[in-house]
User: What shape does this take?
Amino acid sequence: MRAVVQRVTNAKVEVKQETVGEIDKGILVFLGVGKDDTCDDLLWMVKKIPNLRIFEDENGKMNRSLVDINGDILVVSQFTLYGDCRRGRRPSFSNAAPLDVAKKMYEEFCARLSEKYNSLKVSRGVFQADMKVILANDGPVTLLLDSKGDF
Assistant: This one.
């Protein structure tokens, strides 16, 4: 699995000009599922993302996690994270999971976040929808994660 994690002061997702997910201070996660991803990859992401120490403490150091600050999390499916642009001008998405597998993993990821971190507000986009994501990146702080350690 791959994720782009952004620390935000607020973020929302719109589908057909209707807000479907919205958060205040927290993390916006763009989540991509790869064709070789397993439950282990999913569990790694569920454990890793909310515990990243990317929020400032009283000394201005990034020592607090989303769990520590009781922030919000917005998860948006993003198969284009598996776009391979090394050859030609059109990205290849052959490493992205098939639609049915990706949807199941995305839904499972969101459900596991809600179960494990029930104090956090977990919002989401709409899988496979044409979404507009509006955010205020805080810092900016943007991190790339790959459960396979590819980057």
